[in-house]
Design goal:
Blueprint (H helix, E strand, L loop, with lengths): L6 H13 L3 H13 L6 H13 L3 H13 L6 H13 L3 H13 L6 H13 L3 H15 L4 H13 L3 H13 L6 H13 L3 H13 L6 H13 L3 H13 L6 H13 L3 H13 L6 H13 L3 H13 L6 H13 L3 H13 L6 H13 L3 H13 L6 H13 L3 H11 L2 H4 L2 H13 L3 H9 L10 H13 L3 H13 L6 H13 L3 H13 L6 H11 L3 H8 L15
Helix pairs in contact: 1-3, 2-3, 3-4, 3-5, 4-5, 5-6, 5-7, 7-8, 7-9, 8-9, 9-10, 9-11, 10-11, 11-12, 11-13, 12-13, 13-14, 13-15, 15-16, 15-17, 16-17, 17-18, 17-19, 18-19, 19-20, 19-21, 20-21, 21-22, 21-23, 22-23, 23-24, 23-26, 26-27, 26-28, 27-28, 28-29, 28-30, 29-30, 30-31, 30-32, ...
Length: about 575
């Protein structure tokens, strides 16, 4: 009979299998070992817990933990660390902290590695406060810390906008002679960039260089994005060129940041050229890159080019996501290409993608805009049948669409049937309904609803006031409209250019030229400009009235006044 190999030999074999990620095979071998009477030691069982965790079978892992206790072994720091790691892997971070604390009370002191796992898990769960507390506990218990634990907490603090707390940690790590690395510096730079504090971000960047630490592509990406967000295109370009000068190749994220920012600034040609360069350099665009370019092309009305980019995604083996579809649908709707939008909506279904509330809101709004009320209402109902709850914007779209198409009663009935706290606390929704009532000539009910806003705990904003003022003026109650302008000022809501344009236009139509001139003078004092319609009426009057001609001559650049959207 051959002698049985020692447990140490088996442990060595099991360890090698783990290195090759043969987790299930390790579990099977342990079962065979038990079958032939080879009892495991603590080392064996720790290996087995690790395998269970990698197989996402935490239940099995705790079963092995029970076997450790049953066999009379004392769990050590490796046991606890392995279980904690497994729990964090499946999102059981808070339970992992409880287990860790419980084992610490029993004298099983965690290693720096275990603290690091927990701190990382807490940071990813946005529990930065608990991560800080655990870090302090670690320093108190064993006095050890490393750059990794500091790095994780600083990164989490910066992502949460807690830059001052991050700087305290940064100072603390330097105090205990732990040298910050590129990850720490990059996290601080990102934190400052998110807050728009670019001078401080550059100070950190320069300090990093002074310490002999080379920035990586991630560091540069943070700075480029930060400068672009503040519209500092020249500075962003300088950083990009500096990166190239350091021999650092831009990655997909770099190109995506540049393309996205250029598109949002309306520089579509430059964005498209950069996209072509990216492909020439062999960088595979991500779906975010494609989406950024499609967004820019749609916003600039280049729907044909947007369609080409949309097709290119599939040609290059990529997968369109819901955002891709929503952007192109929105582009079609904005340019009255509703049939194309509806076709794409059906195509979305064919590809197995579920439309979102945004998809439905866009289509419903566009259909109402061209008077296809029946189809719009059908889609609104379909959205709810599909399990999507209308949000506040959904109701804004349906109420505005019904009101503008003359279905005022239906809009009010729908509002009454919903009786949502969110709706009843929305000044925007009431403004839409009041506008609808005014359009229908139901001025009494509109004024009643407006006057009752304060009883509902709502404070009318400038849009609500303008809606009511416009309704009064449209119905020949110009003096009452002007009184409301004065009233809104008394209640702390400053009239804007739209408020004054409504009143001036109304008085001009009533041939109340002196009143219109007085109000216009008040507009000038407030540096508010007349809109295109009012300017046109004034120019016409100037042809027949010398006083108006002299007034117009005194106005700076009146013929080039900014056009404002005024309720009609």
């Amino acid at each position: 009979m051959q002698p049985t190999a020692s447990i140490d030999t088996f442990n060595h074999i099991l360890g090698s299998m783990v290195k090759h990620k043969l987790y299930l095979d390790v579990c099977l071998m342990h079962r065979k070992m038990n079958f032939v009477g080879i009892g495991p030691d603590l080392y064996t069982l720790n290996i087995l817990i690790n395998c269970c965790c990698h197989l996402n079978n935490l239940y099995c892992g705790f079963g092995v933990f029970g076997e450790i206790l049953k066999r009379g072994f004392e769990p050590d720091s490796v046991t606890v660390g392995t279980l904690v790691k497994g729990m964090c892997m499946v999102g059981e971070v808070m339970n992992a902290v409880k287990l860790f604390d419980k084992m610490s009370e029993k004298g099983v002191e965690g290693e720096v590695f275990t603290y690091g796992i927990l701190i990382n898990g807490l940071c990813k769960s946005r529990e930065t406060g608990l991560a800080l507390e655990l870090h302090r506990k670690m320093l108190k218990r064993n006095g050890k810390a490393n750059v990794l634990t500091y790095s994780m907490i600083i990164e989490s603090l910066c992502k949460g906008g807690l830059i001052n707390e991050a700087l305290e940690m940064f100072s603390d790590m330097k105090r205990v002679k732990i040298a910050p690395d590129v990850v720490v510096y990059s996290s601080l730079i990102n934190g400052f960039c998110k807050l728009g504090r670019m001078m401080e971000a550059m100070n950190v960047f320069n300090e990093m260089a002074d310490q002999g630490i080379s920035a990586n592509v991630i560091t540069y990406n943070y700075l480029i994005h930060g400068f672009f967000q503040l519209d500092f295109c020249k500075e962003a370009t300088k950083i990009f060129n500096h990166m190239l000068g350091q021999g650092i190749s831009p990655n997909v994220v770099t190109f995506t940041i540049l393309i996205d920012c250029l598109c949002k600034k309306g520089k579509i040609r430059e964005a498209h050229e950069l996209f072509e360069l990216m492909i020439q350099l062999g960088k595979e665009p991500s779906i975010y890159t494609y989406n950024s370019l499609i967004y820019g092309l749609c916003m600039s009305g280049q729907l044909d080019e947007a369609e080409k980019v949309f097709k290119l995604i599939g040609d290059n083996g990529g997968e369109h996501n819901i955002i891709t579809f929503n952007m192109l649908i929105n582009g079609y709707c904005k340019h009255q290409m509703i049939e194309n939008a509806l076709w794409l909506f059906k195509e979305m279904h064919r590809k197995g993608l579920k439309p979102t509330t945004v998809t439905y809101n866009t289509l419903v709004g566009a259909l109402f805009k061209i008077g296809r009320v029946r189809t719009a209402k059908k889609l609104f109902k379909e959205m709810q049948v599909c399990g999507l709850s209308p949000d506040l914007h959904s109701y804004s779209v349906i109420f505005a669409g019904l009101c503008k198409n003359g279905h005022i009663k239906e809009a009010i009935d729908l509002f009454e049937s919903v009786k949502s706290i969110e709706l009843e606390s929305s000044i925007e929704i009431f403004s839409i309904l009041i506008d609808g009532m005014c359009r229908a000539g139901n001025l009494g009910e509109a004024r009643k609803q407006f006057d009752e806003l304060s009883k509902k705990g709502l404070v009318p904003d400038v849009v609500a006031y303008n809606t009511m003022i416009n309704g009064l003026c449209k119905n020949g109650m110009v003096s009452e409209g002007y009184e409301l302008v004065l009233q809104m000022e008394e209640k702390g809501c400053s009239p804007d250019s739209i408020s004054f344009n409504i009143i001036v236009r109304a008085f001009l139509k009533e041939n109340e030229i002196n009143k219109a001139m007085d109000i216009f003078g008040e507009m000038r004092k407030r540096n508010l400009l007349p809109d295109e319609g009012v300017t046109s009426m004034m120019l016409h009057l100037a042809l027949v009235d010398e006083q108006w001609r002299l007034t117009l001559q005194s106005l700076p650049n009146i013929c080039h006044s900014k056009t404002y959207s005024v309720p009609r």
